[in-house]
Amino acid sequence: MKTVRIVLVDDHLMLRQGIRKLLEEHTEFEIVGEASDGREALSIISERKPDIAILDIAMPRLNGLEAARQIQSHHPSVRVLILSMYENEEYVKQALIAGVSGYILKDSAVEELVWGIRAITQGHHFLSPPICTKVVREYIKDFGGKAKKMALDNLTSREREVLQLVAEGKSTKAVASLLFISPKTVEAHRSNIAKKLKTKSYAELRDYAIKKGFLITEHLDGSPKKMP
Predict the structure, then answer these.
(1) Residue 147: pLDDT band by 50, 70, 90 thresholds?
(2) Residue 143 has what pLDDT?
(3) CATH architecture under which domain 151-226 falls
(4) How far is Cα of residue 188 from the mean position of the Cα atoms in its chain?
(5) Would the pTM count as exceeding 0.85?
(6) Among 123, 129, 135, 132, which Cα is nearest to 52's?
(7) Contact call for residues 78 and 32 (beta carbons, < 8 A)
């Protein structure tokens, strides 16, 4: 197992020592440096070249958010994990914009920090559950609160069924047979779908459906796979 090299950055010495002790119980982690502020962190990161930098937000001289921006700018291979007491949505937003890979609350269980480090080491993002809830809620508000609904949201359940079968390349007769409706009804549904989605041909409609994930097959191991 590859050793994960970590730099700890927090202006509270006792907290850094506590985190170090906890992480060093896992042989896959190696603490290669510590810093008490953002500027010191940048210097140590330049020298030690860690895999991960764990940063607090509230620090003197250079706060964690600005330090994260500079780390991502000058050391893009270093993944940044914010370890903070703040659940403030604006801090979370700015941290993600700055390029951090993880945001964990200080009152979280130790296991959560370990999971977070492992996740971002593998190229994933990791957020504490309360932070994840805020991010998802904000995303839904921004994305779903627009005046106009997505075109797909205007389709009825039956129209979505028809659209999936179109994506699968089923003929009008085949769709009618599968849904126990007449071919004329299928054509009427398809015409309505085309109007709602502003597509001009069967091929264009099918391409749209495929791109939106209506055609799903499976890998040999059973895991879902969307067709391109």
Answers:
(1) very low
(2) 62
(3) Orthogonal Bundle (1.10)
(4) 39
(5) no
(6) 123
(7) no
